[in-house]
Amino acid sequence: MTDTDTVRSERTLRLIRTGRETPPEPTPQRGGTLGRVLGLDLARALAIFGMFYAHVGPMQEFKNPVVNTIMQIPHGRASALFAVLAGLSLVLLAGGRRTPPALERRQRIVKIVIRAVLLIALGTALTLWLRTDIVILAFYGLFFLLALPFTRCGVKTLAVLSASFAVVGSVVFYWISMAQPAFVTALNAHDPITRMGADGLGRLLFTGLYPAVPWLAYIFAGMAIAKLDLSAKRVRIGMASVGAGLALAGYGLSWVLQKVLFAGGGMGGSGSGSSGSGMASASTGSGSSGMSGSSGTWSDSMSGFDPWSRDMLQFLLSASPHSGTAFELLGNIGIAMLVIVGSVALLDRSALARKLLTPITAAGAMSLTLYVAHLWALNHVPSNSEGGAVTAALAVWGWFCVGGIVFAFVWSRFFKRGPLEYAMQWATSPAKLMR
């Protein structure tokens, strides 16, 4: 899941993480690879820690709106950042901004396909084993397969695709969830994976917790970011400006529209986790709960609602976590862009930050390992259901983060990749046989 564009940058990272040699501190420069690699690792670590929080952290609604908004920040946004980084990684795996030779491109494509199939298999196995609906890996693998044909597209094309899925995809997602068309019902009824209790094709595409129809907006956004020269100051400023604008348009416009159309209806569009109509609790509950064993999403709890009612309109104007609305998608993309550009800029410009944040970037470099490990650990911690002690939930989250950081840092002293990252590399190695 990390950027290994060049042998030289990979060797530099290995030297830094193992401590076996002390290479000269690289001078920040345009086009430098080190700051970009470590910056993306930092962003991945933040996404992983945010998903830890969403699964074990506090879920209560707080009376103070400022506190409530702060405590709800990771919900929905962490998994969205993870998906944007997936799109970015897809382009890097396909060759990055350069056009590889024909043979190398075929090998890279086969490697991506193998990786995607393995992620779908691993995600399905974890969902069946742990009896939970929060596993993103199968969705992640499907995203790779669906977006693979677009890896050679330019920034503008990818940006248009991202915006299209954010707007049109969110409407399609809403319609399918509410209308339950016959083809989706039939697909679920005849899908053996769905019948076993995991995420079959219907849920992966349309009705799951991370459905491809709206979530490809995140993937294409990440792919567009991967096409940019993140080492250039002008690009960073532009990306930060666009990210701030999208966040303001998504969360801010949602909040304004709800205030104007539904006076006294609450703070549903503020990103606080409440839609003001009671539906955000359903979306947050399914997306942020622990090992609930439930396969339901927000759509499963809405079958009795009139699609043209006040509640439904208010929901579509919200930006609550995992709602899949255009406002949430655009706002989350904006936040992801700010996190990525901030992480890359910080670690590209500051040698001190690179040194101090080494344990964090080590965790980001083995995000697959830590993600799977945290899913297993969720079976051994108390549920973070509403009403639990806030301090206890925060303590559990803290231990998850500290445990992941310590393991990753110690492991990186001796090995270049995480355990599952090594397994993935080995499993995709037959791609080299492609001729």
List the helices and strands and how they pair.
Elements (H helix, E strand, L loop, with lengths): L6 H12 L15 H23 L8 H8 L1 H20 L8 H29 L6 H11 L7 H25 L2 H9 L1 H5 L4 H7 L4 H15 L6 H29 L18 H9 L21 H7 L9 H24 L1 H6 L1 H8 L1 H11 L12 H23 L6 H10 L7
Multimeric status of the protein = single chain
Shape: globular
* Sequence stretches where pLDDT stays below 50 over 5 or more residues: 1-31, 265-303
Largest sheet: none
* Tally of helical runs: 20
Kindly estimate the percentage of residues that lie in beta strands according to DSSP: under 5%
Helix content: 55-70%
The end-to-end distance, rounded to whole angstroms, is 25 Å
Count of DSSP strands: 0
Transmembrane segments: 37-56, 76-96, 108-128, 134-151, 158-176, 204-225, 237-257, 329-347, 356-377, 389-411
Organism: Glycomyces niveus
InterPro entries: Bact_Transport_Assoc, DUF418, HGSNAT_cat
Pfam family, one: HGSNAT_cat
